[in-house]
Task: inverse folding
């Protein structure tokens, strides 16, 4: 019975390898990684290899949008078009560390024994399509929204 | 020159057909649509066929998580496992309308003439990997985070 099997499932059953980036990586490279691998987000590790932040894709994009455009639609509209596409280049050597917003209240990080319902609630609450699974400080991988949804609806 | 071509781009150049759901659709079917088609989110239309809400995938998931579990990780952990996987079924005929949170301050909706920088800023600000493109009240389609990122990094 699929239902039975799902009900026994824990995070460790759904976790899969997931690319990580470091705080010192240039934002441009982080954006390229996201695009090239069709990732729903990125896991940012600290110096000890632990999750420092989990960035949903929209917030990786945010790192690459000039600050003066982020909150002003009108400004983004009138920016000289010839310059609009150069914003990735304009980032230069700006790193993920330089661009990160303040740390959120709650990181989408859980442990291998979390129930699927717990992972679902965490994803919903943190608005993150990526949840990192950590065991005793060691990153095991991640559960994506897609993987979780597939399991929950039984596809 | 790729750069030149990107700089001339507007929302109408990137917009693509995107599935929509109505307010009367059962949440279970909305969740299945998201999973089956690997969508980053859903566009919810009102009775007149205009975007009523744009739900990122994490918030479609949220519709399907019992309210009593949404904000209490401890509760989601101790819920009887045999019941945890039945939550999609437990939704019964609950519709998208019944489950929607209050309308957000700003919907990720733009017009065909928006610059790519404008679309990027809108995605980042609304935390939505889907932006609906509307022309005179008519939904033309959507721009996904993936499509935008691919264009911006030139893959």
Result:
């Amino acid at each position: 019975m699929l239902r039975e099997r799902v009900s026994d499932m824990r995070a460790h059953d759904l976790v899969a390898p997931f690319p990580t980036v470091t705080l010192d990586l240039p934002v441009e490279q982080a954006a390229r990684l996201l695009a090239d691998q069709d990732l729903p987000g990125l896991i940012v590790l600290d110096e000890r290899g632990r999750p420092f932040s989990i960035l949903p894709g929209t917030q990786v994009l945010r790192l690459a949008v000039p600050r003066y455009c982020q909150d002003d639609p009108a400004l983004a509209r009138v920016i000289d078009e010839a310059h609009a596409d150069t914003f990735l280049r304009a980032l230069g050597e700006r790193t993920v560390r330089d661009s990160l917003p303040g740390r959120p209240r709650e990181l989408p990080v859980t442990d291998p024994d979390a129930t699927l319902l717990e992972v679902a609630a965490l994803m919903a609450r943190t608005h993150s399509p990526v949840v990192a699974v950590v065991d005793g400080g060691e990153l095991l991988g991640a559960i994506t929204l897609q993987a979780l949804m597939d399991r929950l609806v039984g596809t």
Chain B touches chain A through 59 residues (CB under 8 Å).
